[in-house]
Specification:
Radius of gyration of chain C: 21 Å
Oligomer: heterotrimer
Chains: A alpha/beta (323), B mainly alpha (346), C alpha/beta (328)
CATH class of the largest domain in chain B: Mainly Alpha
Largest interface: A-C, 45 and 46 residues
Number of strands of chain C: 12
Helix content of chain C: 25-40%
Largest sheet of chain B: none
Strand content of chain C: 15-25%
Helix content of chain B: 55-70%
Shape of chain B: elongated
Largest sheet of chain C: 8 strands, mixed
Strand order of the largest sheet of chain C: 6-7-8-3-9-10-12-11
Order of helices and strands of chain B: HHHHHHHHHHHH
Chain lengths: 323, 346, 328
């Protein structure tokens, strides 16, 4: 993917003030997205991946405090004035979420919601917006689109609602589509359909995708490159094939080894990572993974490891210089 | 017990229980804490009334009717008031000085003041039209009013929680029966019913309690039923059923403690309602009968003479208002502190 | 097999609707022997959770028999049912919802003991109960020093351990596990799956293990049954099912399941089903999978296939493998 750089996140920090203390949900995250690339943000709960994706459109709700820069075509999204930000959202950068039932307004017809984006960003009239919406629904695999466009969200199944969300997300031909766990709430056969659809559409439109997920199988099948997040930091990144074939960071290794695989029937034990992910309050200066790491050393307890390596890199004291 | 528990990063793992957390949240709310202090003060004073050095609340001293609040002995105030009155009459009649009759009267009054110990009393809040000490009447009246609030709230909690819990959990015809009863009782004009009851069974304190308790449990019953209905499909209830727990155990060991937050908040906000209801009855002349007092009856009496002797209205009204404010602020604070939304998820 | 621990035959669970009937479970048969694990897989609406609840008698089955150690639970009521059910306990899916937030970990784990003691079915004194609770907590990997902590102070994986300890309190022979790892993070899932296996080896437990993740089921189960719309479509020993799936739905499921390996993912041939997972209130005529099956024949819409042997221990309900009625 030698494309030019579409989005650049620099030193993103997101903090939440809670009664128990300051939670560092995202702690110094930087990454780049290239034109036409599908980037995966992989992590478990508490890794900070979801709130990172929200910050890309400056959607982090208070009491969250965001600092850092998010450059899109050279402009910092976090510093954009309100009206410019609104022009961006849904039009140049679109987002779809995990639970389509809560992202769609249950009181409005599907057609109304789809047309809203079109009329807002492309200035289409009612007739034209409706026609375009029907086209989009068809392109997303909804049969009988002309009739179903007047139905309400509750008349659609989970998979179909997600198709509607995709239709809405791609309706204005955005440059970037951010998908936050788009298939986690769906059955596995429906998941396969939806992922195929997303791949197909984004390829034909040339849209870059940031896919947030915890499912390694989904990442393996859809992403060109990925960033593995843990406790608000990126601990490993690189092209998907490289990361899976030769995982550098002990967390990535542990993660890949602990997932049961259909194509490798095994008896015996799964190589599980002991312990659990930390809460982000008052985390001392160290590698956040060290209590669970079987190769923890002195520096791991004392200092935060820098990320080293080009192309395929990891933040681990096992690789003090490029691996 | 070993060293305090810590996590993998040596951060201390402070224990946190649902009630402990709620109390901590409440402590951070200054209004609620202040209210709690105020209510505590009220409770202390009214409870301790019999052992405080108060003037007997029912004793009438005809000489001391309608005295204003003062730190000075009653006798002085009396003398001063009488002198001022006579002086007003003198000036109205345009006389240079007091007549011999008036002087004699003042002299005998001054004499009586020195000899009769009753005139050494101090009435910090003044007296009413029968010469009864307003301060002690207020404190004793507070006992009655607060008691009514508490009794009403307690009966509504017992009846409302039990019936609401049973109706909500069992559903079906049991639910239907209980709720129709509630609907019927709700439809009755409350005041009318109370008046009729009091007329039939006499005006005493017990009947007042009974009348209040009759209606008090209805709202709480509905609220508890609603909560239980929404909770009874929770997975932990299913787990209890799978273990062989019977309805009794599920309602009282699982569902009710999880509803306690709502119950506590509601009850705190019900106490003012009962006090207001009683005061309204007293205003109509149907509340406690003399010589007992309640804040309501004191307000009723005070209202009648408020242009002449404003303190007779202001004092009990202020006490009642402060108490009700404090109860309401506490209720609000409790609602925020017990709000399940803010319970952390690990 | 030797005397089965659990034998379910003709299990049906129907819910009346305003228009029609919701056939959540529509004729299910299976057996679980002592120490065995039967995996039950399927997507949403297939009836796997309803099956577990019908077996546990949380919902009274509309028809069928549930024989636990030879006694039919469907016929029992009240104290008899509770006594008989002692050998079968349940583990739930949502670690955040299946524990009463107002009870401490110790109380939660001890609750079955208290319930059975109150009913006179258990003769453990308080100190003995406490000792058992402490032992259980240690066995599932939780320090018994946490027995006075509340659920919200534990992580998801730890809560699931509490749920497991609770299920083991009465020393049952069979655990009904309803998606016990689905709500957990990947790295925690592996820990809990290992725990399940360890406990099985140590206590000789049998499991009815329900999940939607095929890879997870493959890891724990010795036999697997695939459900679709309230019926079992295919049932076989685990290795056999994954190596040689006969029912088109099983093939589609296996094909759709993502594998964490980019080489494999990019080169595999996917079967993409059309249409949605149907709802269980549709009329029951013909094979429930006919609408989405790419290999359907005319007879599939007219007759309902029954579960029949297609190999040693391998049963499938499909006209591709068994002739329909009336065909030569």
């Amino acid at each position: 993917m030698a494309g030019d750089i579409l989005l650049e996140v620099q030193d993103l920090n997101i903090r939440f003030d809670t009664a128990e203390g300051v939670v560092k949900a995202v702690d110094g995250v930087s990454f780049r997205l290239h034109r036409g690339e599908t980037l995966g943000l992989v992590g478990e709960s508490g890794s900070g991946k979801s709130v990172t994706s929200l910050s890309l459109l400056n959607l982090v709700p208070p009491p969250g405090r965001v600092s850092g820069r998010i450059l899109f075509h050279g402009r910092d999204i976090l510093a954009m004035p309100g009206n410019e930000l609104r022009r961006l959202r849904g039009d140049r950068i679109a987002m779809i979420f995990q639970d389509p039932m809560t992202s769609l307004n249950p009181f409005l017809r599907i057609g109304t919601q789809l047309a809203e984006t079109l009329r807002l960003h492309q200035g289409l009239g009612r007739r034209a917006a409706r026609d375009r919406a029907v086209e989009l629904l068809r392109a997303c695999g909804i049969q009988d689109a002309a009739r179903r466009i007047d139905q309400y969200p509750h008349q659609f199944s989970g998979g179909m609602r997600q198709r509607v969300m995709i239709a809405q997300g791609l309706s204005c031909g955005p440059e970037i589509l951010i998908a936050d766990e788009p298939t986690s709430a769906l059955d596995v056969t429906i998941q396969a359909q939806i992922l195929e659809l997303v791949k197909e559409l984004t390829r034909s439109l040339g849209t870059a995708v940031i896919l947030i997920t915890h499912d390694l199988g989904v990442v393996a099948g859809t992403c060109d490159s990925l960033c593995v997040m843990y406790a608000g930091r990126i601990v490993e990144r690189g092209p998907t094939t490289a990361v899976f074939q030769d995982p550098l960071h002990p967390y990535t290794q542990g993660l890949i080894a602990s997932v049961p695989r259909l194509d490798r029937p095994g008896t015996g034990r799964l190589a599980a990572i002991p312990g659990q992910p930390p809460s982000g309050i008052g985390l001392p200066e160290c590698c956040p993974f060290h209590p669970r790491c079987d190769r923890a050393m002195e520096p791991c307890r004392a200092r935060r490891p820098p990320e080293t390596g080009a192309g395929h890199s990891a933040a681990c004291w096992l690789y003090p210089e490029a691996p | 017990m070993a060293a305090p528990l810590a996590d993998a990063f040596d951060r201390a793992l402070r224990p946190s229980s649902p009630w402990g957390d709620a109390w901590r949240r409440l402590r951070r709310n200054r209004m609620a804490l202040a209210s709690l202090a105020v209510l505590g003060l009220f409770a202390l004073l009214t409870l301790a009334a019999p052992i405080l050095p108060l003037h007997p609340y029912a004793e009438q001293v005809i000489a001391h009717v309608n005295l204003p609040p003062s730190f000075r002995p009653a006798g002085e105030t009396l003398l001063e008031a009488r002198t001022a009155y006579l002086d007003q009459v003198r000036r109205a009649e345009d006389r240079p000085g007091f007549s011999p009759a008036e002087q004699a009267e003042l002299a005998s009054l001054a004499q009586a003041i020195h000899t009769d110990p009753v005139h050494r009393r101090r009435y910090l809040l003044g007296t009413d039209d029968l010469g009864r000490d307003l301060l002690s009447r207020m404190l004793y009246g507070g006992r009655i009013s607060i008691l009514i609030g508490l009794v009403g709230t307690l009966t509504s909690m017992l009846l409302g929680v039990a019936l609401g819990g049973i109706a909500g959990y069992l559903g079906g015809w049991v639910d239907g029966l209980i709720m129709r009863c509630v609907d019927i009782l709700f439809g009755l004009p409350y005041m009318l019913v109370v008046i009729i009851l009091m007329a039939l069974f006499g005006r005493n304190i017990l009947n007042l309690f009974a009348a209040v308790a009759l209606i008090s449990w209805l709202t709480l019953c509905r609220v508890v039923r609603g909560q239980i209905i929404s909770l009874k499909h929770a997975e932990f209830v299913e787990a209890a059923r799978a273990m062989g727990a019977g309805p009794f155990r599920i309602i009282f060991r699982h569902l009710t403690p999880n509803t306690l937050g709502v119950i506590v908040v509601f009850s705190t906000l019900m106490v003012p309602q009962f006090i207001m209801a009683e005061s309204f009855l007293s205003f109509l002349g149907l509340g406690v009968s003399a010589p007992l007092a309640s804040w309501g009856s004191l307000v009723a009496q005070g209202a009648a003479v408020m242009e002449l002797y404003p303190w007779q209205l202001l004092a009990p009204a202020a006490a009642m208002t402060v108490f009700l404010f404090a109860m309401n602020f506490l209720g609000d604070g409790l609602r925020d502190a017990l709000d399940p939304q803010s319970q952390r998820r690990a | 097999m030797s005397e089965p621990l659990l034998e379910v035959s003709g299990l049906k669970l129907h819910f009346p609707l305003r228009h029609g009937v919701l056939r959540a479970v529509d004729g299910v048969d299976f057996r679980i022997g002592p120490g065995e694990t039967l995996g039950l897989v399927g997507e949403s609406g297939c009836g796997k959770s309803s099956t577990a609840r019908a077996v546990a008698q949380l919902h009274r089955p509309t028809a069928g028999r549930v024989l636990l150690k030879g006694r039919d639970l469907v016929q029992l009521r009240g104290r008899e049912l509770i006594a008989a059910r002692r050998d079968m306990q349940m583990v739930f899916q949502d670690p955040y919802a299946s524990l009463d937030p107002r009870m401490t970990a110790g109380d939660l784990i001890a609750e079955p003991l208290r319930i059975y003691r109150t009913r006179g079915l258990l003769a453990l004194s308080r100190p003995e109960q406490e000792a058992r609770v402490a032992a259980l907590m240690d066995r599932v990997g939780l320090s018994s020093r946490f027995r006075n902590r509340y659920p919200h102070e534990f992580s998801g994986g730890q809560r699931q351990r509490i749920g497991l300890a609770r299920a083991l309190a009465l020393q049952p022979a069979l655990l009904l596990c309803d998606e016990p790892v689905s709500a957990l993070d990947v790295s925690i899932q592996a820990q809990i799956l290992n725990l399940f296996k360890d406990l099985q080896a140590e206590f000789g437990l049998a499991y009815l293990f329900i999940a939607h993740d095929l890879a997870v089921v493959q890891y724990v189960a010795s036999r697997v049954a695939v459900m679709y719309l309230g019926r079992i479509a295919e049932q076989a020993p685990a290795a056999e099912l994954y190596r040689n799936p006969l029912h088109p739905y099983t093939q589609a499921l296996l094909s759709a399941a993502p594998i964490p390996d980019p080489q494999v993912e990019r080169t595999r041939q996917r079967i993409i089903l059309s249409g949605d997972v149907p709802r269980a209130d549709r009329a029951a005529v013909g094979c429930p999978f006919a609408d989405r099956c790419w290999r359907r024949m005319e007879v599939c819409r007219v007759q309902t296939p029954r579960l029949q042997e297609a190999g040693p221990g391998h049963q499938v309900a499909c006209f591709l493998h068994h002739p329909a009625e009336g065909t030569p």
